[in-house]
């Protein structure tokens, strides 16, 4: 068992154009475009990730005959962390369009000393027993929210493989995921890896608060 990291932004593709627009503070002012670009990168993640899933042989009847095809052996379960992950989740769901969905509400609760803990508020999931789990969140900063969310989801059964999808990740966040899930078959899919994490656990250069950019500012 091992953790593999795939940084798809390293290869030249349209993915990097969408990532450029998601990072650009001027383009970010258009929340509809931000959501659409997040959905687009979700679709690209889905396509790249699909290459590593299991396939079976199947025949399809056309209007002129029968064609042998290779199709997915089974649909994954697609999970996301509310609320920032919703557009990314939709992009994944656009391609895995028969997949079951799971939703996790996990958030940072700040203390008086400005430190924070991750609180779990809500979870809704189908059984994950022997399934492929794909869980997405646009930013993997400290890795705390993702770790808490995956552990909560694992109470619904042990999947045969976990795919974590994040647009931008910090080195620290990747280390935390590897440390906490070293005994799981886990693949981490990221668009870009940024080195700096501020004292308030923001990724630099990052792209900002994905939830606020997609859906508007929230009350603290």
Question: How would you summarize this macromolecular structure in one to three sentences?
Answer:
The protein has 220 residues and is α/β, with parallel strands linked by helices. It has helices at 15-23, 31-50, 86-95, 144-153, 171-180, 210-215; strands spanning 3-7, 55-61, 66-72, 77-82, 100-110, 116-124, 132-136, 139-140, 161-170, 186-194, 196-197, 203-204. The chain starts with a strand and ends in a 5-residue tail after the last helix.
Task: Name the features.
eight-stranded mixed beta sheet, 30% helix, two-stranded antiparallel sheet, globular, 220 residues, 6 helices, alpha/beta, single chain
Characterize the structure shown.
With 220 residues, the protein is α/β, with parallel strands linked by helices. The protein is 30% helix and 34% strand. The chain is built from six helices and twelve strands.
Q: Write the element-wise H/E pattern from the N-terminal end onward.
A: EHHEEEHEEEEHEHEEEH
Distance between the termini: 40 Å
Shape, per Cα inertia axes: globular
Helix proportion range: 25-40%
Unreliable runs: none
Oligomer: single chain
Number of H- or I-type helical stretches: 6
| Rg estimate, integer Å | 18 Å
Derived from helix and strand composition plus strand pairing, the structural class reads alpha/beta
Average pLDDT taken over every residue: 91
Task: Report the count of strand segments.
Answer: 12
The major pleated sheet works out as:
8 strands, mixed
The amount of beta strand, in percent, is 25-35%
